[in-house]
Each structure stands twice: as structure tokens, then as C-alpha cells.
Amino acid sequence: MQKEFFHKEIVNFIQENNHKNTIIIKTDTNLIETKIVDSLLLTEIILFVEDISNNSIDIESFNINSFKSIDIIYDTYIQSR
Questions:
Q1: pLDDT class for 21, splitting at 50, 70, 90?
Q2: Half-sphere exposure of residue 37, counting CA atoms within 13 Å on the CB side?
Q3: How far apart are CA 39 and CA 1, in angstroms?
């Protein structure tokens, strides 16, 4: 999957599921520290990434740092698969 496609899809997903005003999300924006993503939305993002990548994310080895930014999510769960 192309990075640009993934970026567009996940940004749309986050914006649709984030109840704050319009937010600008770059591929390197720290989603956790900026509080764009809370724990509930993180769970939904994990499910979204599993769905879009057709791969399961092992919760036993889950590391929140792998969801810090869209770049990291892509590198960890999309590109490497």
C-alpha cells in the first residue's frame, strides 16, 4: 500500500472520529502528545489499521510508541508487511 493512500485514509478516519474542531495532521504529528488521539480512539485506530492492512496487531507485544505518528504506524504495520 502506498504511503500517500494510507496517510489520506488514516487522516480521514481520525478526523471523522475525533470530536474536536478541524485538526491538521501531518505524517510526523505526534498523535498521543498532541492529544489528537485518546485511548478510545487509539483502540479504533488499531482496528482500522488491522482492517486496512489485512493483518492482526498482536496486543501482547503492543507498544504505544508504534502509534505515535502516521509515519511510525505505516513503517511498523503497513510497509513492513
A1: low
A2: 23
A3: 26
Tell me the pTM. 0.90
Residue keyed to cell 479504533: 44
Rg, C-alpha atoms of the chain: 12
Through-space distance between the first and last CA atoms of the chain, rounded to whole angstroms: 10
5: its cell numbers: 493512500
Q: Which domains does the chain carry?
A: 3-78 (1.10.1200.10)
Q: CA distances (Å), 22 to each of 14, 61, 67, in order?
A: 11, 33, 21
| Nearest C-alpha neighbor of 45 from the set 60, 33, 31 | 31
